[in-house]
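Pair request: fold both.
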Amino acid sequence: MHTSASFSATVRVRLDDSPGTFARFAAAVGEAGASLGAIDIVRVERSTKVRDVTVQAADASHLDDIVAAVSDLDGIEVLHVSDRTFLMHLGGKIEIVPRNPVKTRDDLSMAYTPGVARVSRAIADDPSKVWTLTAKQHLVAVVTDGSAVLGLGDIGPEAAMPVMEGKAMLFKEFGGVDAFPICLATQDPDEIVAAVKAIAPGFGGINLEDIAAPRCFEVESRLQDELDIPVFHDDQHGTAIVVLAALLNALKVVGKELGDVRIVTTGCGAAGTAVTKVLLAAGATSIVGCDEHGALYEGRPGLDAAKLEYAALTNPERLQGTADEMLAGADVFIGVSVPGAVSRAGIAAMAPGAIVFALANPQPEIDPEVVEDIAAVIATGRSDYPNQINNVLAFPGVFRGALDVRARTITHEMQIAAARAIAEVIGPDELAADYIVPSVFDRSVAPAVARAVSEAAVAGGVARVQLDVTQ
């Protein structure tokens, strides 16, 4: 049973002040399959002690079982249980703070009226000055309609808010980018596009998040056409960038080249389509995508518009069959679909030096333990296995780099540059089968990605300003 801080609680207990009482508490926690964390004394009473004990569980029901187990013990009274994840979210996780103090009349007169009027007039006379005289230069809108939130699905804009706040935290922590959640009470593409266009003047970039396919494709495409700031659907392109980075390093481990390998994917939705497009742009030549009915190919009946486009880009030989059948002789499997999408037998039929990216989260397409003896390199979307494919490696640096040169859009070349920068953080002497992507806490990643993205934007002619070579 895998315990996690995301299912942890601080349990306040009153224990009889006698030998062995806490040992019985700890034993009950252990027998319930939980892990003990911090142990703090709150106060000492005449014949009892009150302690705060942090426990980690596997899920919410497991947490309830742990509390029930210790509540039944003689000499132990559970006073209160505080879910640590909910405590982190109390009052929200982000706030707006001024960059300059307002302590005197002079400060007020410059920050607001009457002095601010001169700044507004300067922008009205020269709109390009909005980039230097406002927060636009470091501000991103994180926009969702709440229709595809994590693995929860269509839970609505209010319930999506904690996720968008979390995204904003990561933007700031890893990229130095200020981000603000915009949760829209509509799932109509026309209304989403209109709303984002209406707020766009105040932002330097738009990060689309947790919008269901195929609506996300239309929304992103239209906004990219109609706005002159970067529009980036992270569920698609953030995933694609990190997958490419990981694959570039995995191929080095097994001694193969991207242009030579045969790739099979499962999942042809938003993430799967973006992964395929960026791999093709980076030099991949042989990709077969599979959905629940098998391989996609031109002419297959019943394909929707998105899958028709996917089929036109891939599988030129029009191979037919299940995902397992397509894996025979393949070099790379990339899953962005559902648990059980492929089997051990399918992976076993792959070419020597097989690379398996099973990225469905929280349950991979195939558990790493099932294929660890037959796959040369394995990556997942989970933090409890090596080689986690995590978008945090990409989006903070991508937007930092785009904002630094005031990019008008984010091109495939910028995405590929980001992927190569992530891959190159790991030096040749460090690269290994269980270390093909850097840690999300490696502080060298975002600056490296930002620099690469800025340079690619300038080279591609989508930057408003040149990169500051002194950075």
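--- second member of the pair ---
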Amino acid sequence: MPDPEPSILVVGSTMIDLIAYADVLPEAGQTVVGTGFAMGFGGKGANQAVAAARLGARVAMVNCLGEDSYGADTLRNFEAQGVDATWVRQVPGSSGVAPIWVDAAGMNRIICVPGANDQTSPELAVAAFDAIRPMVVVAQFETPQATTAAVFERARAAGVTTVLNPAPAAPIEGAVIASTDWLVPNEHEFALIGGGTLDGGAAVEDAALRDLADRLGVSLVVTLGERGAAVLARGGRVERVAAPVVRATDTTGAGDAFVGAFAVGLALGWEATDAARLGCAFAADSVTRPGTQSSFAGRESAAGMRERIATRL
């Protein structure tokens, strides 16, 4: 039997990425000469939506853009990417932007300026959910947590899976975590939201994973960069999923690539470890190219990744 068409609602941010590349990033008060510059479409929500769409999902986006050229360009990009922007609104003010620095090793530093993203309302998100009735709802922390809480509560009541990517790291409001099924931080966000300390890049321990999952009442996936991901479904055991070995050029957007792909796997009804394998494969492939959404595999290549994992089920 062929896989069903996965349906995903992403409630989250859009940003215009302003990416500067340099061999070494500047210290405080220092100026360095860069090696390149690129401008592209980003925002954690938009990135995750595009990743899911590249993998064959039917994706709708909930967001607010500014009444500026960046907002108009973003709407055109959603159309080009096959992401339904019916529930994206333009409001007075500026669209979100994200200045990004990338060093010679491909590691990045990012400043997010939310702009119109902060006006993404609970009413808009709930109306989108009621109209679409998706299989999975995905959210992050670049739009108001009150909005996430409202749509997650509606999803929980309808038996729809919710996925929270707690990034950028911030305290999680009780109303949000109460309706979160899957919490998907990276290892630094994991530590900041209560998972313990990381000493010199030490591995996230199984006991710390279980402790945080039990305390918050969620299933948990922690992304570990080149080391893959650790997966803990509620009532289960910690399982480690390896990432393909690649040569990284730019890690920008890799976490979003994982979350979008993981959501697709869940929407397909796959086990969480298989969904994480798809996430690791899609994210690892993305770091071999520069940029954010521009680094994601095209639809044909992405379909091949999905098929290779599906054949193992």
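Observation on the second member. The two ends are 12 Å apart (CA to CA).
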